Structures are given as C-alpha cells and as structure tokens.
Amino acid sequence: MSDTFHWPEFLPAFRRAAAARGFEEELLVETAEGPLCAYTSDDNQSKRPIYLSSGIHGDEPAGPLALLQLMKEGFFTPVSSWAICPALNPTGLAAGTRDTAEGMDLNRDYHLRKTPEVKAHAAWLERQQPPELFLSLHEDYESTGFYFYEINQCDDRPERAKAILKAVGAWLPPEPERVIDDHEVREPGWIFHAAEPDLPHGWPEAIFVAKQKKCILSYTFETPSQMALEDRVAAHCAAVKTAVEA
Ligand SMILES: [Zn+2]
Question: How many domains does the chain have?
C-alpha cells in the first residue's frame, strides 16, 4: 500500500499541521532521507502526558497518515501534554521498507541503540516526562484483522480494551487467530503483554517506554496491511481516540 504514501510530501504536511496547532518541532537526527522530528505541545506538568509514535517500520503507512489526520482535525487539544513522533524511520518510509536503508529494524534496537535514529530518539525520550499513556501505531502483513498489545503496569480494566475493539470494529474486524506472533490472545484481537522483551537484546520501543520511562500503560495497534488503506487509517484514528478518552 506504500504506493499511496508519499514520504516527500508527508513531513512538510505534518509540519504545517503541527505548526497550525501550536506544536513545537524538534530535530532529533538527520538521515539520508530527511530529518527525524519530534513534536510537542506545552510541557505543563499539571497536564496528562501522552506520547504517540508511528512510522518506525517504513512499510506501515497507516500509522503516520492517522497521526497526520488527527493533527489536522485538531484532536490533540491542550487538555493533555502531547509528544508525537510520527515518522521514526525516514529512510524506510522513503523506500517503503520495514528496515532502514542500512537494513536495521529500529524496533529491535532500543536496548543496544546502535542506529543513529534510535540513539537520538531514545535520548529525546529520556528528556521527556514519563508518559501516562503511550500509543504506538503499526501494521501487520500477515493478519486479516485488527489487534493490539497492551502493556499494563497499572489497573487492569478490560473495558478499555473492549472499547478500543468496538470503536475499531466500524472499519476492521478483530484478528481471529488465538495466537498472534507467538502470543496467545486474552480475547480476540487483544494481547496482554508483560513489560519484558521477547528477545533479551531486541527491545522494541514499547518495552523501552515501559521499562526505562516507567510508562504505566501502552497500546500498540496493528492494522492488517491487506485491507484498504483508508480503513486502516480510520481504524488507527478510532483506536487512538478511544484509548485517550478511556
Ligand atoms: Zn511495525
């Protein structure tokens, strides 16, 4: 589906939308395909800090497009303190590949931090206040439905997960498999994951945010790449809105 995602247009579009909503842009690192940027609203300590990211895998366009749409429509209102990284893998997004141009899967590099992208991004994350909620937007080539990982180090409230699946259900069914990526589901579409990495040195971003930043609650949303892009974008938008409001 990356034929409908145009990296050269994405970043300028996100930049314009973010500036119009009063967000500040910070350059984390330059890559061969342009800058890796973070966007923040104010860092008022009394507001709930929420962090969102997407585009760490360059062949998963629905996440970046969903964050752009939410930014354009003014979803990120000043009731929370927002930190957003919409395009963590510029060279992968430019090429439409999961990995970077150097062949690295950034979402396995948060322990060793060998890549310039993750080194810069992790250092930036260290400077942010710990998010109360982290939302990570991904896609999956093998699945036929929507699913998500929940990493929960606070209260277990199944109604949150059910609300997300219900909201997304207008566009995508839950993934029917009982085992997804070697993880047994708690209910269809819902993986309840410990705050521990599957591979000791292959930390994904969500484990770094849970362990290093002590984020008590995170959701990683996965839309099925084989479905229509507009439905996947709408599904991500619905999942983000529901998770934030729940
Ligand atoms: Zn991914």
Answer: 1
If you measure from the C-alpha of residue 220 to the centroid of ligand 1, how many angstroms do you get, rounded to a whole number?
9
> Ligand 1 center to residue 140 CA distance, Å?
7
Distance 203 CA to ligand 1 centre (A): 13
CA of 46 to the centre of ligand 1 (A): 32
How close is the Cα of 24 to the center of ligand 1, in Å?
26
The tens-digit pLDDT sequence of the chain (246 residues) is: 445 899 999 999 999 999 999 999 999 999 999 999 999 997 677 889 999 999 999 999 999 999 999 999 999 998 999 999 999 999 999 999 999 999 999 999 999 999 999 999 999 999 999 999 999 999 999 999 999 999 999 999 999 999 999 999 999 999 999 999 899 999 999 999 888 888 889 999 999 999 998 999 999 999 999 999 999 999 999 999 999 998
Question: Exposed, middle or buried: residue 105 (CB in 10 Å: 0-12, 13-18, 19+)?
Answer: middle
Residues 6 or more apart in contact with residue 148 via CB below 8 angstroms: 161, 164, 189, 190, 191, 219, 220, 221, 222, 239
Q: Which domain holds residue 71?
A: 2-245
CA 120/CA 115 separation, integer angstroms: 9
CATH code, 80: 3.40.630.10
pTM: 0.96
CA of 63 to the centre of ligand 1 (A): 9
